[in-house]
Amino acid sequence: MVLSNVLSYADRVGTVPLAVTLLALLALGRAQWSADRAMTRLLVCGAIWLVGGFGATVFLPVRSDLYACFPSVAVCLAAAAICGRSWQASTEVRRRRALVGALVLVVAMTPVYWARTERWSSLAKFSAAILADLAAATRHLPDDAVVVIQDDRTTRVNLDTAIGTLMQDAVVVTTGRRLVIQVEPPLGGADPAGVAAPCDTCVSVRLRVSGGRLVPDSAQQSH
Q1: Integer Cα distance of 13 and 51 in angstroms
Q2: Are 177 and 143 in contact (CB under 8 A)?
Q3: Of 78, 108, 186, 189, which sees the most CB atoms within 10 A?
Q4: Measuring CA to CA, how many Å separate 213 from each of 38, 107, 162?
Q5: Has this prediction a pTM greater than 0.70?
Q6: How do residues 69-78 score in pLDDT, each as one tens digit?
Q7: What is the pLDDT of residues 50-76, one digit of tens each?
Q8: Cα gap 131→110, rounded to integer Å
């Protein structure tokens, strides 16, 4: 598990800075900084920052992109220092070529930025729409009313991936009231056998996720 975490986090924090640094060295030329004590000290401090940043999270049984944010600063600073030293030691012609190449690279990577952003923005849009629909559907209900929501787990964007176990808190923030929200199947990978189903007469509203929105459940209409 620890080895898997190390490899995964190394990819998160190092792939892009390493690729950019190698491209910069190819475009600008390798800088002669190996005997520079200031540069060596900076790289050593960056290594300490990196190891310290992952000192606790690398041993956790779960991984998160958020855990890589703080340690990645060290790698980016080290990469920037190396690229900056290469820039200072390079020629004017190489600098102009590097600038043009950098602009072309940024534009060429636009589809990648879009794809990576869409993966997470779709979850944000979904959760905002669901909570708005829930607030409208439960506006007439009193506090502590029971609401059952049938989630659609056939798609990547669902209640479990977008909101998860924070569903109850999200409802409080959105509606300002406390409702008893039960999601089927249970959120957070909970054992369905360990979640008691409310009685039919206890449920005030039954809703289901359909097409990224909350709609009345057919079971509620038939009941």
Answers
A1: 12
A2: yes
A3: 78
A4: 57, 35, 13
A5: no
A6: 999 999 999 9
A7: 999 998 888 988 888 889 999 999 999
A8: 31
